[in-house]
Structure formats: structure tokens, C-alpha cells
Amino acid sequence: MKAAKLREHTDDELRQLMDETAQQVFDLKAKQGVSDSGEHPLRVRLVRRELARIKTIIRERERKRNG
Predict the structure, then answer these.
(1) What is the dihedral of CA 39, 28, 53, 9, to 10 degrees?
(2) Which of 8, 18, 26, 56 gets the most CB atoms within 10 Å of its CB?
(3) CATH classification of the domain holding 25
């Protein structure tokens, strides 16, 4: 999801999305360790980037709020 689209979400929605995305990363890494499938490395990278975008937006809002 693009950063502009993520910025439309509320803080609570972003935190929930962050938890879900972190769980996805965990699940994908667990599957990657068990199987030798070639599709997972790219998917893990994409989900990790999405998680980073979400965390960045949350942090931007916190900094803006605190001055």
C-alpha cells in the first residue's frame, strides 16, 4: 500500500495494521524456514517494507503532535 493511502487511516487503524503486518512477516519467515519455496523471499521483503512505511507514518504523527 502506498504511503499516501496509509496516511488516510486513523492512528488506531494504523496501529492495528502494523500489528497485522508484523504478524504476516513472522508467518512468512516461519514458512520460509520450513520450506524451500522460491516465492517467499520477495513477499517477505515487500511486507517488511510496508511495515516500515506504517511505522514511519506513525512516528511522523507522534513527532508532529509533540512538537
Answers:
(1) 110
(2) 18
(3) 1.10.287
User: Domain range spanning residue 24?
Assistant: 3-66
Report pLDDT digits (tens) over 6-63.
999 999 999 999 999 999 999 988 888 777 666 678 899 999 999 999 999 999 999 9
Tell me, yes or no, if the pTM score tops 0.90.
no
Residue 9 DSSP code: S
Alpha carbon distance 35, 30 (integer Å): 9
Give the integer Cα–Cα distance in Å for 62 and 56: 10
Cell of 37: 519455496
pLDDT of residue 39: 63
